[in-house]
């Protein structure tokens, strides 16, 4: 059981704590984090979500996940990176990136807080959590931008997220 806090549209806790699956079933707003893992070659690490994921199976996305009840955003980002791809991130190496994103949908409404972390590890140096992912791959940032612009449905990204990838090129 994974407990998460329900929030309002400003990210303020409502006082309600529910199991993640119940929150999803009721489509209640909750906090999530996403971490852009980037390297010195102007690349971003994407991970392919496993086939058994409830949302966006088999699509390329970021290291991301839910913020557990009573967990800070930064701690959630660090935990997700450790769980999903086996890397240790020190708080001082984790950097806030961009504005939070409110996503109200028919299913899985959430607020995402974005971070970035730099590493030059090779793909085979990551230890992937096979329940969550099937692989990781470094993509040139421009390649991801082209994929989004061309409507490539192999990723979780749409044009509303282009500004993040454009911003990565400035780091």
Describe this structure as you would to a colleague.
With 171 residues, the chain is of the alpha+beta class. It has a single domain, classed as Nucleoside Triphosphate Pyrophosphohydrolase. 20% of the residues lie in helices and 33% in strands. The chain contains 4 helices and 10 strands, in the order ββαββββαββββαα. Strands 3, 4, 5, 6, 7, 8, 9 and 10 form an 8-stranded mixed beta sheet that branches. Strands 1-2 form a two-stranded antiparallel sheet. A hairpin with a 5-residue loop joins β1 and β2. α3 runs antiparallel to α4. The longest helix has 13 residues. It is globular, with a radius of gyration of 15 Å. The termini are far apart. The mean pLDDT is 95.
Features:
171 residues; alpha+beta; Nucleoside Triphosphate Pyrophosphohydrolase; 8-stranded mixed beta sheet; 10 strands
Short description:
The chain has 171 residues and is of the alpha+beta class. The protein has a single domain, classed as Nucleoside Triphosphate Pyrophosphohydrolase (Alpha-Beta Complex), CATH 3.90.79.10. The protein is 20% helix and 33% strand.
